[in-house]
Specification:
Layout (H helix, E strand, L loop, with lengths): L1 E8 L5 E8 L8 E6 L4 E7 L2
Antiparallel strand pairs: 1-2, 1-4, 3-4
Keywords: Ribonucleoprotein, Ribosomal protein
Pfam family, one: Ribosomal_L33
Family: Belongs to the bacterial ribosomal protein bL33 family.
């Protein structure tokens, strides 16, 4: 079953991206390196609660 998750920037904490993940395959939180519009650079984005 796929669920919607929101990704937030680690530096400025702005919630920039939303994506989906399969909870059966990945139970831990997702981490991706994405472009943050507020920081104007590529930063680590983590899944929020």
């Amino acid at each position: 079953m796929r669920t919607n998750v929101v990704l937030a920037c680690e530096i400025c904490r702005s919630r920039n991206y939303s994506t989906q993940k399969n909870k059966q395959n990945t139970s831990e939180r997702i981490e991706m390196k994405k472009f943050c519009k507020a920081c104007q650079e590529h930063t680590l984005h983590r899944e929020t609660k």
